[in-house]
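Working notes for the structural subgroup meeting. M.R. asked for a predicted model of this chain before we commit to crystallization trials. I am recording the input and output together here so anyone reviewing the notebook later can reproduce the run.

Input as submitted:
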Amino acid sequence: MDWELLQQNADVLVPVGLASDEDLVRARTVLLGLQGFYAMYMMHGLFMPDTPGLAALRDLIDSWGMGPFLGHMVSLNPSPRQFAEGLTVCLEPLFDQLYEALMAQLVQDPYIFRIPGDDTGAAGFMETWMSTLREQTPCRAGDRAPLQAVAEERRAVELAGHQQYTASSVPESHHPCSTRRR
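Returned structure, recorded in token form:
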């Protein structure tokens, strides 16, 4: 096996090194744009309210067959290597074309965070989303059992003489089951 040839062909820095400054700036724009679009694509699975604009963006990504691929390519908090790999991928015309198609869809329906019939706009969208998330939380108002379990874990750790940061060290007001406002 010619390992040098494999390393040469697998090296993500070669295409980046060969690209012009303009190509790199455009690839960065495409990469960062695709990160945002992919985040909206995935948030639908996290109970984000659906709107016609968000559905159109998801449908466009799916019609290109790019949902799973973006899942592998896009990192919302990339390491330097992941950023370089994403930048290399975004040098390809296909991803520029996808980005342009998504931007055109966004221009066509810019109110992606507006629920039809709700004139509060993005604020109403977020309130609906947060309400949905609260409803999906396994804790209900008055249900203190999870907090009791956390308190028991804290006591057990203290008795064992360990000083470590655990979920039990989170103040009650920040616990997802807390009824206190932050």
